[in-house]
Amino acid sequence: MAKKTAYILIALLLGLPYLTSPAPAAEPDIARLLKGFDACLLVYDLQRDSYVCQLNPALAGQRYSPCSTFKIPHALIGLDLGILKDGDTSFQWDGSPQAYPHWQKDHTLRSAMAGSVVWYFQRLAGKIGPRDMARYLAEFSYGNQDSSGGLEIFWLSSSLKISPREQIAFLSKLYREELPVSPKAMLAVKDVILLDKSGEALLRGKTGSDRIAGKWVLGWFVGWVERPQGVYIFAALLRGADQAYGPRAKRITLQALRELGLW
């Protein structure tokens, strides 16, 4: 202690800086990104079997409609049954009016996933049928496994519900190729949910949104980041009176991943 004190006095007399250990870097304030919503964000380190981020863990255990995030298991089922051959399997638009102009054309699995084209997956649901749909939901342990709300709408503000934590579990199995479908089906789905590349990192995922009475009340973004040093599975859920929708959940998640140094 005396030596340390003497060194400080000498340094001051000679006008030399006294070097101390730098303060540890502050943790990023990820919670601020969710301000204004009843929301949660989970980021799970697959290799370490631990959460990098858990915001609002109570909400993370509650089930909500998967909305268009269900297109991931939906595609897996269609591919495993051979209804879809690959990401380029196309369905012809029947000419009926659609909610968005970009839905009003023929689509492949790849373009329907990217554009969240509801009619494509409703057509697929009809080809899968209620029995096989219920069987796969049970085999996937997907949420409450309830497809009773109608074959073409059960995942859209209807009977099927899933929690953010269950989304993490399902996507972890998909990444590890541990789901009870063919490896070819899982590889094809991984391919069509690829969103972006940054250096050696890959981003895969899907948004989902729910609108009631013209208000966006629920927004999802689920997926994962693949990096050389590991894989990070994420699930974000926004709830609110309005402006809670998938693209916003995606923007918030990407900002959080950047601040965590994962993207």
Write a structural description.
With 263 residues, this protein is α+β, with helices and mostly antiparallel strands. The protein starts with a helix and ends with a helix. The longest helix has 14 residues, at 246-259. The protein has one domain (31-259): DD-peptidase/beta-lactamase superfamily (Beta-lactamase, 3-Layer(aba) Sandwich). A hairpin with a 2-residue loop joins strand 6 (201-212) and strand 7. The strands form two sheets. Strands 2-1-8-7-6-5 form a six-stranded antiparallel β-sheet, with helices on both faces. The chain has a two-stranded antiparallel ribbon with strand order 3-4. The protein has helices at residues 2-14, 57-60, 71-80, 109-115, 118-128, 130-140, 164-176, 183-192, 246-259; strands at residues 38-45, 50-55, 90-91, 107-108, 194-198, 201-212, 215-227, 230-239. The chain has nine helices and eight strands.
